[in-house]
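Feature request, filed as a ticket because there's no other form

It would be nice if the structure record came with a short human-readable summary line next to the tokens. Right now we just get the raw output. Example of a typical job, pasted below so the devs can see what we mean:
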Amino acid sequence: GVADVFPHAVIQWEDFHKRNAFRILENYRHRIRCFNDDIQGTAGVAVAGVLAALRITGQPITEQRVLFIGAGEACTGIARLLAAAMREAGSTEEEIKASRLIFDSRGLLQEGVEVTDDHKHELVASRAILGRYGLDGPGRPTPAEVIGRFQPTILVGATAMPGTFTREMIEEMAKHVDQPIVMPLSNPTSKAECAPREAIAWSGGRALVATGSPFPDVEHDGVRHVIGQGNNVFVFPGVGLGAIISEIQEINEEIFLMAARTLAEFVSDERLKQGALYPDQSELREVSARIAAAIVRYANSERLGRSVADEDVDGLVADSTWFPDYVPVISLDPGSN
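Raw output as currently delivered:
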């Protein structure tokens, strides 16, 4: 197998159907160094956006309530990593389960409704949780009705369905939250759940918006809102490089939570003041180096990989980074094309 021929390789799974994606990841994650970018990479970059937004709002992650529209690879991965972040911050399992509600293409995932995809079972809300928010009546409520009762602080979409985030939803969210965090993550741009200008206008200029596709900045009431793009490229290169350098044997959940924290901390105060939840993409190389270095140090502290002296980590990461510099090609024959 791959591990025999390339014992130091890291495998990045990408673009599998959701039924295969979860199965393959679970089959191999404890056997070879691998990760699924659609599940774990997306989770890392989305959780980074949440953590950066909380630097603006000043709220702890333990007090967040998250409504997911979509229950595929992306939203499942994000829900899992957010749960890990909340758990690390002191939330109980019951508090974590009560902090999130999830819609799939058929409606709210709730106890008593048939769920056919295995990965969705962990996302189903119990009757007790629904009752806490007055959502335990007959039928399945709409997203706007859930927002009115649940009062989420964070709205995440990964549906590839433009118009999924409606004016009614954002306006209802803004009634209960000073600075709603709105994340229409689908790409390309034409499939985003809403445009940033819509979320900002519908929230009266208060929404903190991050997208999965590139969008221009938004001017609202004389204020410029910079729209940060939550692209997985902020996470997976650093994770892969860090795993290769450290020779860590398993790329676990802690690795992606560490990547998310590192990325969130990298966002400058100046960009946060402008509403941007991610660095500029011109800073990608530095972000990747910091994530890789954090992973190497984590592997050292936990004795999970090769031993690298702390003072040597940053230099080793720099020396291991490839630059696309090419020797110029010069024709020796002036008459040749």
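Something like this underneath would help us a lot:
The longest strand covers residues 100-104.
The two ends are 46 Å apart (CA to CA).
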